Amino acid sequence: MNASPQTTPRTTIAVTGASGQLGRLILQDLRKAAPEAEIVGLLRDPGKALDLAAQGVVLRKADYEDPASLNAALRGVDRLALVSSNEIGKRFAQHANVIAAAKAAGVRLVVYTSLLHAPVSGLSLAPEHIQTEEALKASGLPHVILRNGWYTENYSDAIRQASQTGEFAGAADEGRIASASRADFALAAAQALLGAARPGETLELAGDRAWTLGDLAVEIARVRGGPVVYKNLPVPQYAALLKAFGLPEAVADMLAGWEGEIAKGALDDKGDALRRLTGRPSTSLAQTVEELLKV
Ligand SMILES: NC(=O)c1ccc[n+]([C@@H]2O[C@H](COP(=O)([O-])OP(=O)(O)OC[C@H]3O[C@@H](n4cnc5c(N)ncnc54)[C@H](OP(=O)(O)O)[C@@H]3O)[C@@H](O)[C@H]2O)c1
After folding, report:
1. What is the pLDDT at residue 4?
2. In angstroms, rounded to a whole number, what is the distance separating the alpha carbons of residues 101 and 71?
3. Cα gap 67→150, rounded to integer Å
4. How high is the pLDDT of residue 121?
5. Domains along the chain?
6. Which of 16, 85, 185 to mutate to test the pocket of ligand 1 (most atoms within 8 A of CB)?
């Protein structure tokens, strides 16, 4: 389903969260795949993405909390990737501001990065994504919903720590995680913007091969050349461990709670929508572990 870019020099494609890790990858993919189009990065502080400007991305100031800035930034935009905000708890209001501005600007396609299986997910992240999906539908804007699974990079800290100490802990038990790399999800969003997904589609995006935290231990052991033990803890004990490491109570409870949902299968998926959208296999767990532990 790899898109042949349906763009002209008059096409303007914008991406929110341009200073963030996913947003910047989407922008770089768009520059490569649609060099003739105007590619616009939306962000609070253009100073954070001067490297993108040097690559030909036009930067416009836009704060999710400031509707006037959004209205100005979206003027003339044909297609928009709304990369979900990282401000958990404030996100729905922020996304609603972006959707209202997109509607006012006459944007012709909005691609939103939601959460895998959002309507049935037990992850505490799900309600804000569902609200956003519903607001998009209610807006009448043509849109594509990309329900992204976990980034493998979410485990970067655990992988680095386990490579040094030979152990890491969690509470996801035998829960299977069909993760993919940020780069995979970014390419999927770029392709959706370029016509590889049909307006109205909702796609569950996940990696080709699901794995457990036990499998992750095996991969880290392989790369470090020594044993790695995964210690599975009950959710409350894992939360207590995270607090002992210095995480604020609410954050520790949230992260441990997610692990409990992963144990129940929240991040498992057997579909191939990600691979079809990107036109390539997803980045494997082994590749990401190798990349993270490269010296
Ligand atoms: N699938 C997963 O595993 C996973 C993991 C983590 C996050 N996520 C979700 O996916 C999104 C993208 O991931 P990521 O790794 O790129 O996250 P990230 O690096 O934390 O980027 C988040 C972006 O949101 C922007 N933002 C926050 N508040 C804003 C506001 N009021 N106005 C304008 N921009 C604002 C940030 O801008 P500033 O630079 O100005 O702060 C940043 O560019 C996250 O925001 C989160 O919703 C998914």
Report:
1. 42
2. 5
3. 30
4. 98
5. 12-148 (3.40.50.720), 150-180+206-269+282-290 (3.90.25.10)
6. 85
Ligand 1 neighbour 61 (Cβ under 6 A): no
pLDDT < 50: residue spans in the chain: 1-5
The pTM score is 0.97
User: How far, in Å, is the centroid of ligand 1 from the Cα of 226?
Assistant: 35
User: Which among 103, 184, 174 has a CA at the least distance from the CA of 149?
Assistant: 184
Q: What does 173-230 look like in DSSP terms, one character per residue?
A: TT--B--B-HHHHHHHHHHIIIIIS-TT-EEEE--SS-B-HHHHHHHHHHHHTS--EE
Structure tokens at 184: 């995979």
- Please report the DSSP string for 62-119 in residue order: --TT-HHHHHHHTTT-SEEEEPPPS-TTTHHHHHHHHHHHHHHHT-SEEEEEEETTGG
Taking each helix axis from N to C end, the angle separating 91-105 and 126-139, rounded to the nearest 10 degrees, works out to 20
